[in-house]
């Protein structure tokens, strides 16, 4: 079972001019096995929502709650959130020079499970994940994200998600900058994850393109730190046709 509840979330970020309110009361529940898409214009606070749930120290939660299967997430450390079953694929994955993909994955898996994975099955699982994501056999020996192409970064994020096997995954613009072949490979990986029992998915995207491959159960339109409208997959189609103008004008 996995349910992620976000209740009236208010978040500020520290800027040179002092704290700035970014999220202004976000309420949304990802039920067991559901896929939700958050769409919205640049600067509407989508990444801020993702970082806040993952526990990035720069984002100050000033109100509201986040519960994973009824347990308070906001009082947990970043590590505890990952162990509880939350995973975030960042919009801009960070480089970790000197740490190989293989070591990084094994360390993360060990930290999350509380014990090292059995070597033989683990190596098999890693190789299978790499192959499915069309990352070549030398990829595991490269430093995390160092010199990776845009597509390699995103495919590596999906490999992490599949291997770490969280309860709820948040993918922040994992589709951005991908060509059509890479988009298909990434979407296939996401759909493999979704096919497992009870996995929650929060898919943050600026474009409707990925939603043709990964059909969401619900779509939320994010404007100025709030959910401006929600609906089913048909809402994404309307956005495709109409753009965000209608929402941004209405929010002034
Ligand atoms: P989105 O992901 O929807 O494009 P973001 O969450 O990245 O939006 O940003 C929302 C707003 O918060 C923007 O105005 C952005 O400039 C501001 N913001 C986000 N993070 C920071 C930060 N670390 N420092 C200063 N401003 C930030
Ligand atoms: Mg942005
Ligand atoms: Mg963003």
UniProtKB/TrEMBL annotation:
Annotated ranges, domain ABC transporter = 4-249
* Keywords, sorted A to Z: ATP-binding, Nucleotide-binding
Parts forming coiled coils: none
Q: Which NCBIfam families match?
A: sufC
Would you identify the family this protein belongs to, as annotated? Belongs to the ABC transporter superfamily. Ycf16 family.
Q: Which PANTHER family match?
A: ABC TRANSPORTER I FAMILY MEMBER 6, CHLOROPLASTIC
**What's the protein here called?**
Fe-S cluster assembly ATPase SufC
The gene name on file is: sufC
């Amino acid at each position: 079972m996995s349910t992620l509840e976000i209740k009236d979330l208010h978040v500020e970020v520290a800027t040179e001019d002092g704290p700035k309110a970014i999220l202004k009361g976000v309420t949304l529940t990802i039920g067991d096995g559901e896929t939700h898409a958050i769409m919205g214009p640049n600067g509407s606070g989508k990444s801020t929502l993702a970082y806040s749930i993952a526990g990035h120290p720069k984002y100050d939660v000033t109100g509201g709650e986040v519960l994973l299967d009824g347990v308070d997430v906001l009082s947990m450390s970043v590590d505890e959130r990952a162990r509880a079953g939350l995973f975030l694929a960042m919009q801009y994955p960070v480089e970790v020079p000197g740490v190989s993909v293989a070591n990084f994955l094994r360390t993360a898996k060990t930290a999350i499970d509380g014990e090292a994975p059995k070597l033989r099955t683990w190596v098999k699982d890693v190789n299978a994940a790499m192959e499915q994501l069309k990352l070549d056999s030398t990829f595991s020996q490269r430093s995390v994200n160092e010199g990776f192409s845009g597509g390699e970064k995103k495919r590596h994020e999906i490999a992490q998600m599949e291997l770490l096997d969280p309860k709820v995954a948040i993918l922040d613009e994992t589709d951005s900058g991908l060509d059509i072949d890479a988009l298909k490979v990434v979407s296939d990986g996401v759909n493999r994850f979704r096919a497992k029992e009870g996995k929650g998915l929060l898919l943050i995207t600026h474009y409707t393109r990925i939603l043709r491959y990964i059909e969401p159960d619900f779509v939320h339109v994010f404007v100025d730190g709030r959910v401006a409208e929600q609906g089913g997959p048909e809402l994404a189609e309307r956005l495709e046709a109409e753009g965000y103008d209608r929402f941004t004008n209405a929010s002034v």
